[in-house]
Amino acid sequence: MAELLREGRRTRLAVAVLFWLVVWHLAAVAIGNPGALVGPLDVGAALIRLIPTSVFWLSLASSALRIALGFGIAMVAGSLLGYVAHRSVWADALLAPVFRLARTVPVAVFTILVLMWAGPYGLAVTVPAVMVAPIVYANVREGLQRGDDELRELAELDRATPLRYFTAVTWPSVCPYLVAACNVGVGLAWKAGVSAEVIGLPGGSIGEVLSSAREAAATPEVLAWTVLIVTAAYLCERLVLGVLAVASPEAVHVGEAKARVPVAVAG
Asked: 260 with 82: CB under 8 angstroms?
């Protein structure tokens, strides 16, 4: 039964992708202006030209490493601060306005500030970290608050060691919420990181290549890089969820279901 459901989802996804490719092609034909919009065939041809080049691989690797570092910092900082906020009402009160500010400041404004403080090469690390950390923080705090009270009491009565308490109580409570955060956070990290690079223009980055293509009015290349960024974000998301699945397979299914509803926010 589960296999049939998965096959049905794959079929619907394939039909949806084909539908929007046709819509895209018809829109490009209707507009008739390659400077404004080109069809999927032109973008495919641009991809074929881009992928074998060293510029493509070096730019992708450079940006991916910085974005991954920023995402990793967000995961660690958000998780630790979420735990602290759960344990202390004062910490919760102090951290709430900080994360609310991080969620509401426009990415462009924050990018300019980071560019002034840290230079262009720190952008793709700092901006994704600041954008993703509030999501991780809020989800970890929510997971701890919704933990199994009965299991927690049993562990305390059994005088479980910190490690056993973490593996038996804390991790099962938090992991589904971490999965939900990752479902949103990985794509957000890529979006924020590349947007920051387009403004800061660090050398050898996707943002620099995109900016050069825009200035040259190379619409097929701009859209080809967009397809590549979306693909890279999706593959990174699958990788992160795969790592979490090794630690807690059931939590991944629960967390992906949670990701279909609004992510918890600090407040």
From this structure: no
Return d(Cα 226, Cα 9) in angstroms, integer: 25
Which residue is associated with the tokens 């690390």? 125
Residues of the chain short of pLDDT 50, as ranges, are: 255, 261-267
Would you give the DSSP letter of residue 120?
G
The angle subtended at Cα 237 by Cα 258 and Cα 211, nearest 5°, is 125
Taking only the tens place, the pLDDT of each residue in 172-223 is 889 999 999 999 999 999 999 999 999 999 999 999 999 999 888 899 999 9
Residue 221, Cβ density class (10 Å: 0-12 exposed, 13-18 middle, ≥19 buried): buried
Q: What is the pTM of this model?
A: 0.87
Position 266 scores a pLDDT of 39
Give the sign of the dihedral formed by CA 179, CA 180, CA 183, CA 188. negative
What gap in Å lies between CA 56 and CA 50, rounded to an integer? 6
* In contact, 99 and 158? CB cutoff 8 Å: no
Cβ-count burial of 72 within 10 angstroms (0-12 exposed, 13-18 middle, 19+ buried)?
middle
Q: Give which of 132, 135, 133, 123 is closest to 193, Cα–Cα.
A: 123
Structural domains of the chain ordered from first start: 43-258 (1.10.3720.10)
